[in-house]
Amino acid sequence: MDDLSVVEPPFSLEILKSAIRATKSDLVRQDEYDLDQYFIAAKEIRNKFDDDITPKKVAMDEHNEIENAELITLANQLEKIQETLFKNLPVIIGGSVSGAQTQYTSVVAETPQYYFISDKSNIIKESLQSSCRVTKTTIYAHEIVAKKRLDRIGTKSPKKQSPIWVVVKPPIWWQGQRAVSQRFVGLIQMGLSATEAVDYWMVTVVGYPVAQWAAIRGKAKSTIYSRIKTAEKKIKNRESSVGSKTAFNNLDRNYICETTEDGSKYYTVDNIALHPRRDIATASTTGKLSSGYKGAGAKQLAIALLADLRNSNHTHQFIRSLNDHDIEDLATQLHGTVEKIAEINEDGSWTLSEDELKRWVLEQKS
Fold this sequence. Notes:
A five-stranded antiparallel β-sheet has the order 7-6-5-9-8. The protein has a four-stranded mixed β-sheet with strand order 1-2-3-4. Mean pLDDT is 86; it is low at 241-248. The protein has helices at 13-28, 42-48, 55-59, 65-87, 89-94, 123-128, 136-152, 171-189, 194-205, 210-217, 221-237, 296-310, 317-320, 324-334, 338-341, 354-365; strands at residues 97-98, 105-110, 114-119, 164-168, 254-259, 265-269, 272-273, 343-344, 350-353. It folds into three domains: 4-169, no CATH class; 172-237, Orthogonal Bundle (Arc Repressor Mutant, subunit A), CATH 1.10.10; 254-365, no CATH class. By secondary structure, the protein is an alpha+beta fold.
C-alpha cells in the first residue's frame, strides 16, 4: 500500500496517527528501549535521526519525522495482520470463550462485522510474530479501534495489560452466521423449543455423537434422544414456517417492519432480526429501532439498513465501498425517508426491497 487515502477499515488514517502518537508518548517514558519493539519503520527512523534517537528527540519531533516514516509501513503491516487473522479465524474463535474472565483468549464482543478478542496470554501476539511485525504501534491501533467500538455498544474494554485484537470478519463468515440464524428461526417457528432446536441442530446437522453432546450439555443420552425425536416430529408436521407475514426472496433481501397485536414493531431482514449496528454509530443508546420521521430509533434504523445493504452479495460496487462515515452521513438523509420508499400495509407494517433501498442510495450519489 502506498496510498494512505485507502487505508483498510477499521484502521483509518486518524487511527494510525493516534497509534503513533500513543507509541511516542510511551517511548518518552522509558529509560531503556528497543526501537524495533515500538515502530515498524524502526530502521528508517534511526536513519532520520542518524542513529542517535533519544526519548527527548522523540518528544521534540516537531516535523513529524517519526509519523511520516511509520504511517505507510504501519498501514501495510495492519493489513498483513488482518490477512493472517482471517486465515486462522476458525482456530482463534474455536479456542476462545465468551466474556473476559479467562486467562487465555476470549471474545469480548462481536458485531456482524467484527470480533473483539482479548489476548491475555499473548498467544495470538506470539503466533503473529512468526509471519508479521507486531509492535507497539500495531497494538495501539487495535486498542484504539476496540475502545471506540466497544464504547458505542456499551461494552467495557479489557484491562490494558493484554492486547486486544479487532478482527474483521470475512463476508462469507457473516453470511454463514446469517444462514444459521435463519435456520434456527425457522425451527422455532415450526414449534420447536429452544433446547429442542439446539439439540436437533448439534446432533443431526453438525454431527455430534449423542453421547458426546449429552456430556457437553450435562444431560442423559435418553434426554437428548427424546428431544431430537420430538423435534423431528414437529418438523415433519409443519410443512412451512409461520410468523413472518411476508416470505423472503432467496436471491434478494427484504427488510420488513412487522406489527404485533399489541402495536409493537420489530424489524427483520430475510426472517432474522435486523442488527442495529451501534458499532458504526450510536444514534440510539439502547439500540432500539423505530419507524417514523424523527427520533434516535429512526436514525438507528437507517444506519442498520444501510450497513446491511453494504454487506449484500448483490449490492452495487459503490455501496460496497462505503465506509462507516459514509453510512452515518447517508443515514442522516435516509432518516425519516424509509416509509416513503417502502411498501406500507394497512396495519402500519411495511416491506422494503433490497432493490428499492439500493436505488435510493444510488440516487444520492448522483
